[in-house]
Amino acid sequence: MKKKYFAVVFLVLILLAVVFSSNQSIKVMKRIFATTMTDKNTKQIVIVIDPGHGGRDPGKVGVNNALEKDINLRVSLKLKTLLELNDVKVIMTREDDNGLYSQSDSNKKRADLDSRVDLIHSSHADLAVSIHQNSFTEEYVKGAQVFYYSGSNQGKQLAETIQTQIVKTIGDDNHRKAKSNVSYYMLKKTQCPLVIVECGYLSNSNESKLLLQDDYQENMAWAIHLAIMQFINKGGLEDTK
Ligand SMILES: [Zn+2]
To answer: What pTM, to 2 d.p., does this model score?
Structure first.
Protein backbone atom coordinates (compact mmCIF):
# COMPACT_ATOMS: atom_id res chain seq x y z
CA MET A 1 0.00 0.00 0.00
CA LYS A 2 2.77 2.39 1.03
CA LYS A 3 4.80 1.54 -2.06
CA LYS A 4 1.84 2.30 -4.31
CA TYR A 5 1.35 5.65 -2.59
CA PHE A 6 4.98 6.69 -3.13
CA ALA A 7 4.81 5.58 -6.75
CA VAL A 8 1.79 7.85 -7.35
CA VAL A 9 3.49 10.83 -5.67
CA PHE A 10 6.63 10.13 -7.69
CA LEU A 11 4.69 10.01 -10.94
CA VAL A 12 2.89 13.25 -10.15
CA LEU A 13 6.23 14.96 -9.40
CA ILE A 14 7.70 13.71 -12.67
CA LEU A 15 4.62 14.93 -14.52
CA LEU A 16 4.84 18.38 -12.90
CA ALA A 17 8.57 18.58 -13.70
CA VAL A 18 7.84 17.77 -17.35
CA VAL A 19 5.02 20.32 -17.55
CA PHE A 20 7.02 23.12 -15.94
CA SER A 21 10.17 22.52 -17.92
CA SER A 22 8.43 22.47 -21.29
CA ASN A 23 9.34 25.34 -23.58
CA GLN A 24 5.82 26.62 -23.60
CA SER A 25 5.50 26.91 -19.82
CA ILE A 26 8.94 28.51 -19.54
CA LYS A 27 7.77 31.11 -22.04
CA VAL A 28 4.57 31.69 -20.08
CA MET A 29 6.48 32.05 -16.81
CA LYS A 30 8.95 34.42 -18.39
CA ARG A 31 6.07 36.53 -19.66
CA ILE A 32 4.40 36.64 -16.24
CA PHE A 33 7.72 37.55 -14.63
CA ALA A 34 8.46 40.21 -17.24
CA THR A 35 5.00 41.75 -16.83
CA THR A 36 5.41 41.89 -13.07
CA MET A 37 8.85 43.48 -13.44
CA THR A 38 7.58 46.03 -15.96
CA ASP A 39 4.69 46.99 -13.70
CA LYS A 40 7.08 47.48 -10.83
CA ASN A 41 9.45 49.50 -12.98
CA THR A 42 6.82 51.74 -14.58
CA LYS A 43 7.75 55.17 -13.35
CA GLN A 44 5.03 57.16 -11.67
CA ILE A 45 4.47 60.44 -13.50
CA VAL A 46 5.84 63.41 -11.59
CA ILE A 47 4.28 66.84 -12.05
CA VAL A 48 5.38 70.04 -10.34
CA ILE A 49 2.62 72.55 -9.65
CA ASP A 50 3.96 76.02 -9.12
CA PRO A 51 1.57 78.56 -7.56
CA GLY A 52 3.15 81.86 -8.62
CA HIS A 53 4.32 84.53 -6.12
CA GLY A 54 3.76 84.25 -2.34
CA GLY A 55 5.02 85.86 0.83
CA ARG A 56 5.93 89.50 0.34
CA ASP A 57 5.19 89.20 -3.40
CA PRO A 58 1.40 89.40 -3.94
CA GLY A 59 1.64 89.25 -7.75
CA LYS A 60 -1.13 91.20 -9.48
CA VAL A 61 -3.66 93.02 -7.31
CA GLY A 62 -7.26 92.87 -8.53
CA VAL A 63 -9.71 95.74 -8.99
CA ASN A 64 -11.51 94.14 -6.02
CA ASN A 65 -8.20 93.93 -4.10
CA ALA A 66 -7.95 90.17 -4.72
CA LEU A 67 -4.32 89.06 -4.48
CA GLU A 68 -2.96 86.94 -7.29
CA LYS A 69 -0.80 84.84 -4.92
CA ASP A 70 -3.89 83.66 -2.99
CA ILE A 71 -5.88 82.67 -6.09
CA ASN A 72 -2.81 80.91 -7.54
CA LEU A 73 -2.45 78.82 -4.39
CA ARG A 74 -6.12 77.89 -4.17
CA VAL A 75 -6.35 76.78 -7.82
CA SER A 76 -3.04 74.89 -7.44
CA LEU A 77 -4.17 72.94 -4.36
CA LYS A 78 -7.37 71.92 -6.17
CA LEU A 79 -5.32 70.84 -9.18
CA LYS A 80 -3.04 68.80 -6.88
CA THR A 81 -5.99 66.83 -5.48
CA LEU A 82 -7.35 66.06 -8.96
CA LEU A 83 -3.98 64.92 -10.35
CA GLU A 84 -3.31 62.73 -7.32
CA LEU A 85 -6.61 60.94 -7.97
CA ASN A 86 -5.03 59.96 -11.31
CA ASP A 87 -2.01 58.39 -9.58
CA VAL A 88 0.27 61.30 -10.47
CA LYS A 89 3.01 62.21 -8.01
CA VAL A 90 2.56 65.94 -7.38
CA ILE A 91 5.26 68.20 -6.00
CA MET A 92 4.25 71.72 -5.03
CA THR A 93 6.72 74.61 -5.08
CA ARG A 94 4.71 76.06 -2.17
CA GLU A 95 1.69 74.91 -0.16
CA ASP A 96 1.24 78.00 1.98
CA ASP A 97 1.74 81.74 1.69
CA ASN A 98 5.54 81.62 2.03
CA GLY A 99 7.65 82.62 -0.95
CA LEU A 100 10.75 80.59 -1.86
CA TYR A 101 13.37 83.13 -0.73
CA SER A 102 15.08 83.80 2.56
CA GLN A 103 15.23 87.09 4.43
CA SER A 104 18.95 87.34 3.71
CA ASP A 105 18.52 87.25 -0.09
CA SER A 106 19.27 90.66 -1.56
CA ASN A 107 17.26 89.97 -4.72
CA LYS A 108 14.27 88.09 -3.30
CA LYS A 109 12.37 87.90 -6.58
CA ARG A 110 15.31 86.26 -8.36
CA ALA A 111 16.05 83.96 -5.40
CA ASP A 112 12.38 82.90 -5.36
CA LEU A 113 12.32 82.06 -9.09
CA ASP A 114 15.67 80.23 -8.88
CA SER A 115 14.37 78.07 -6.02
CA ARG A 116 11.32 77.13 -8.10
CA VAL A 117 13.47 76.18 -11.10
CA ASP A 118 15.85 74.17 -8.84
CA LEU A 119 12.93 72.29 -7.32
CA ILE A 120 11.59 71.34 -10.76
CA HIS A 121 15.05 70.04 -11.76
CA SER A 122 15.74 68.12 -8.56
CA SER A 123 12.33 66.45 -8.58
CA HIS A 124 12.98 65.06 -12.10
CA ALA A 125 9.53 66.29 -13.08
CA ASP A 126 7.97 65.04 -16.31
CA LEU A 127 6.22 68.37 -16.68
CA ALA A 128 5.48 71.50 -14.68
CA VAL A 129 2.54 73.89 -14.51
CA SER A 130 2.84 77.42 -13.18
CA ILE A 131 -0.45 78.98 -12.08
CA HIS A 132 -0.80 82.77 -12.42
CA GLN A 133 -3.38 85.54 -12.92
CA ASN A 134 -3.09 88.32 -15.45
CA SER A 135 -3.74 92.06 -15.40
CA PHE A 136 -3.94 94.84 -17.97
CA THR A 137 -4.49 98.57 -18.10
CA GLU A 138 -7.74 98.22 -20.10
CA GLU A 139 -10.61 96.93 -17.97
CA TYR A 140 -12.42 95.07 -20.78
CA VAL A 141 -9.52 92.66 -21.44
CA LYS A 142 -10.27 89.18 -20.03
CA GLY A 143 -9.93 85.44 -20.60
CA ALA A 144 -7.54 82.68 -19.59
CA GLN A 145 -4.39 82.15 -21.64
CA VAL A 146 -1.67 79.49 -21.56
CA PHE A 147 2.00 80.18 -22.38
CA TYR A 148 4.77 77.80 -23.45
CA TYR A 149 8.43 78.14 -24.33
CA SER A 150 9.03 78.91 -28.03
CA GLY A 151 10.54 75.88 -29.74
CA SER A 152 9.19 73.34 -27.26
CA ASN A 153 6.87 70.99 -29.15
CA GLN A 154 5.76 69.32 -25.96
CA GLY A 155 5.16 72.67 -24.29
CA LYS A 156 3.12 73.81 -27.29
CA GLN A 157 1.03 70.64 -27.35
CA LEU A 158 0.38 70.76 -23.62
CA ALA A 159 -0.46 74.49 -23.69
CA GLU A 160 -2.87 74.08 -26.61
CA THR A 161 -4.61 71.14 -24.94
CA ILE A 162 -5.05 73.13 -21.71
CA GLN A 163 -6.22 76.26 -23.59
CA THR A 164 -8.86 74.26 -25.49
CA GLN A 165 -10.12 72.51 -22.36
CA ILE A 166 -10.35 75.73 -20.30
CA VAL A 167 -12.39 77.42 -23.05
CA LYS A 168 -14.67 74.36 -23.21
CA THR A 169 -15.12 74.06 -19.43
CA ILE A 170 -15.45 77.74 -18.55
CA GLY A 171 -17.57 78.53 -21.64
CA ASP A 172 -17.01 82.29 -21.51
CA ASP A 173 -16.55 82.86 -25.26
CA ASN A 174 -12.80 83.21 -24.76
CA HIS A 175 -11.07 83.35 -28.16
CA ARG A 176 -7.51 83.41 -26.86
CA LYS A 177 -4.98 80.94 -28.22
CA ALA A 178 -2.03 79.35 -26.41
CA LYS A 179 0.98 81.60 -26.96
CA SER A 180 4.74 81.04 -27.16
CA ASN A 181 7.16 83.13 -25.16
CA VAL A 182 10.94 83.34 -24.97
CA SER A 183 11.50 85.75 -22.13
CA TYR A 184 9.61 84.45 -19.06
CA TYR A 185 12.27 83.31 -16.61
CA MET A 186 10.59 80.02 -15.64
CA LEU A 187 9.98 79.06 -19.29
CA LYS A 188 13.58 79.83 -20.21
CA LYS A 189 15.23 78.03 -17.30
CA THR A 190 13.15 74.86 -17.02
CA GLN A 191 14.21 71.74 -18.93
CA CYS A 192 11.01 69.69 -18.73
CA PRO A 193 7.95 71.03 -20.57
CA LEU A 194 6.52 73.87 -18.50
CA VAL A 195 3.41 75.88 -19.18
CA ILE A 196 2.19 79.02 -17.49
CA VAL A 197 -1.57 79.13 -17.05
CA GLU A 198 -2.89 82.67 -16.60
CA CYS A 199 -6.39 81.81 -15.37
CA GLY A 200 -7.85 85.26 -15.99
CA TYR A 201 -7.54 89.04 -15.61
CA LEU A 202 -7.71 90.59 -12.15
CA SER A 203 -8.08 93.97 -13.89
CA ASN A 204 -11.49 92.91 -15.22
CA SER A 205 -14.10 93.36 -12.49
CA ASN A 206 -16.30 90.41 -13.48
CA GLU A 207 -13.43 87.97 -13.99
CA SER A 208 -11.72 89.10 -10.81
CA LYS A 209 -14.92 88.37 -8.89
CA LEU A 210 -15.27 84.92 -10.50
CA LEU A 211 -11.64 84.01 -9.81
CA LEU A 212 -12.29 84.42 -6.08
CA GLN A 213 -15.18 81.93 -6.18
CA ASP A 214 -14.55 78.38 -5.06
CA ASP A 215 -16.57 76.69 -7.83
CA TYR A 216 -14.89 78.81 -10.52
CA GLN A 217 -11.46 77.84 -9.15
CA GLU A 218 -12.62 74.22 -9.06
CA ASN A 219 -13.70 74.37 -12.72
CA MET A 220 -10.37 75.92 -13.69
CA ALA A 221 -8.43 73.18 -11.86
CA TRP A 222 -10.69 70.52 -13.38
CA ALA A 223 -10.03 71.80 -16.92
CA ILE A 224 -6.26 71.97 -16.38
CA HIS A 225 -6.08 68.46 -14.86
CA LEU A 226 -8.26 66.99 -17.62
CA ALA A 227 -6.03 68.50 -20.31
CA ILE A 228 -2.87 67.25 -18.60
CA MET A 229 -4.27 63.70 -18.45
CA GLN A 230 -5.31 63.93 -22.13
CA PHE A 231 -1.79 65.07 -23.02
CA ILE A 232 -0.19 62.20 -21.09
CA ASN A 233 -2.60 59.56 -22.36
CA LYS A 234 -1.98 60.61 -25.97
CA GLY A 235 1.74 59.95 -25.43
CA GLY A 236 2.68 63.61 -25.13
CA LEU A 237 5.51 62.83 -22.72
CA GLU A 238 7.11 60.38 -25.16
CA ASP A 239 7.76 63.00 -27.87
CA THR A 240 11.10 64.69 -27.74
CA LYS A 241 11.24 68.33 -26.87
ZN1 LIG B 1 1.92 86.16 -11.76
So the answer is: 0.83
